[in-house]
Design brief:
By secondary structure, this protein is an alpha+beta fold. 32% of the residues lie in helices and 32% in strands. The chain contains 9 helices and 12 strands. Strand 10, helix 8 and strand 11 form a beta-alpha-beta unit. Helix 3 crosses helix 4. The longest helix has 19 residues. About 2% of the residues have low confidence.
């Protein structure tokens, strides 16, 4: 079994010396050197068989507690499972302490990596379902009885109050259990240059708030967008407002030049999955969120 550890500065050529049959987009040695200096040490892991590079793992922190494996390779003359398990064990020992999750996809191309994570003591903690639909000419199929007021009209304080109440009791999005203001600012930051307070809206019926919908164009994809959040007040749930708000958000995106919608939710969130189905969305994939067990639990 090879020994794995973070790559050290000056070992760039050792990293690049790996001969693997799996094609990958490789960084040149200068780029690796620059990245080692500015990224978390766990972003570049190397497996050594004596003085020889037997494998490597290139990862990226998507945020301080979410990691994505970009590349996992073993040399042609090494056992992939042994090398991959050794590399992933470095992550599991570290992430079991700080609670970092690993994001992976449940698709054939990623099964070898996922198997290595599980062998190293990772378990799937949650799953997220992804859906898409085209928006060309989209109009809501529902009779919309709601009135809408934007974040720009209401102001951040009032809008945040409504959004927090809409999330109350939601087992998958209950911001009242966390930091509502911090979560709101994260959404604004994620929207980037395409954040527009006239897009995010609260829904009212007879002057009383019912819920919120946050249509958003992706910062890095010109014609694609999502609904950052759809929420209904606890006392209004089960009356069809969820699919009404979701459809209203899709129609708003369509009218503002967005051609494709991408949405997601926890795989256990059956009400939201039913909304996706009611509004013509097609399932496209599943994300897995791995958490590391402590050694005593494995």
């Amino acid at each position: 079994m090879p020994e794995s550890r973070p790559l050290k500065r000056g070992e760039e050529l050792l990293w690049m010396s790996l001969k693997a049959s799996v094609a990958s987009g490789r960084l040149d040695s200068d780029d690796v050197g620059v990245a080692i200096g500015r990224e978390d040490p766990r972003s570049f892991l190397i497996a050594l068989d004596g003085a020889r590079c037997a494998g490597r793992l290139r990862g990226k922190f998507l945020n301080p507690r979410l990691y994505f494996v970009r590349e996992l390779l073993a040399s042609d003359d090494a056992e992939f499972d042994d090398v991959a398990s050794s590399l992933c064990t470095v992550l599991s020992d570290s992430f079991a302490e700080d609670g970092t999750e690993i994001l992976a996809w449940d698709r054939a191309a990623d099964h070898a990596t996922n198997r290595a994570l599980e062998a190293a003591g990772f378990v799937v903690g949650r799953r997220k379902v992804f859906v898409e639909r085209g928006l060309s000419g989209y109009e809501s199929p529902h009779e919309d009885v709601l009135e809408y007021r934007t974040l720009a009209e209401l102001g951040e304080e009032r809008f945040l109050e409504i959004m927090t109440e809409a999330a109350r009791g939601d087992p998958f999005e209950d911001v009242t259990e966390r930091d509502p203001r911090g979560d709101f600012r994260e959404l604004v930051d994620y929207a980037g240059d395409r954040f527009d307070p006239t897009w995010w809206r609260a829904a009212f019926q007879d002057g009383k708030p019912v819920g919120v919908v946050l249509p958003q164009a992706f910062a890095d994809r010109e014609a694609e967008g999502s609904l950052f959040y759809v929420g209904v007040f606890p006392d209004r749930r089960g009356r069809g407002f969820g699919k009404m708000l979701h459809a209203a958000g899709l129609e708003f995106l369509a009218r503002n030049g967005i051609e494709r919608y991408v949405g997601s939710t926890d795989s256990r969130n059956t009400p939201m999955i039913a909304v996706f189905t009611a509004n013509g969305c097609s399932r496209t994939g599943t994300q897995l969120f791995y958490k590391a067990l402590r050694r005593s639990e494995r």
